[in-house]
Structures
1.
Amino acid sequence: MPMSRFRYTLNEAVGDPKAWFYTWAIADDVTLASSCGFCGQEHQRLTYEVACGDVTLWICQRCVGRYPVSGVIDGDRFDPPSVRAYIHGLTARQKQRTCSEAIRKVQAALPDLQLSEIVVYFERNLQLSPLHAATLFTGMAHLDEPIDPRIFEVQTRSIAHQDEFGTLDEKERAVVWPALTPQQRRRLASLGFAPGGTRTRRSRPSDRRELPAPRMPALSEPAMLDPLSEPAAKSTA
């Protein structure tokens, strides 16, 4: 039987989402083991704290976009579009901090691993090239505390980066593969670059066009409202 898809249903105990307010705290779980207090969806990376009276919950990004949770900044209540725009900026900065912390952890644990070039590259691009991803993810596998490589974006939009992935050896491709989106995997598989033993859907031969924009928003985008003082954030990086 085909696997049923998760249905994003609001927990009845939540009541009216409009009665809840964002506290502006963000939890960034690098093991992707968090769950949503609104819909129950598991395996979440980013969750956002909301409060209703003395009760607090952590909700996923999908519920942020789906439900009109309220937001107050400096005593002013904002409409849902403005709240989501502000959260977008907070999210972008949190993702960047978490990824940078992950790289520093690998540096501290494996000082002989040459990561200085990767640090500079990530600071400039907020993504990793396939070669840099292979190096970093191999090092991350040796950490005592696990970090899921999917917290990073891997560049495969350009033909140059697609070819760079193709130059990786079998082990390096296998290390990077889990961090790629389904769309990235299909494109690279159509080029014959999928790691051996990987099951992929059949696709038409590639015309070598560049991929569309990545799934994550640009990490350098600022919040669209006047920023608060640095929001509370939990990070397990």
2.
Amino acid sequence: MKNTEKVSLVSSVYNIIENRKGKVTAKHLEKEVRYALTRLVRERKIKRTRAFGINRIDYFYVVYNNEK
């Protein structure tokens, strides 16, 4: 993850906490991230793929290739 991406992620999390008036649990953040992932999948900006993990099947998100 690039430094600019980390800064963007930190500011996004801060904005979520600020919008909820400082009352946020980790579960709230997980819901926000899941919502964002679902939205990006629906908009076909990313796709969800399955792959074998160490002990189970894991899901990964991959950016669609826009070249046609």
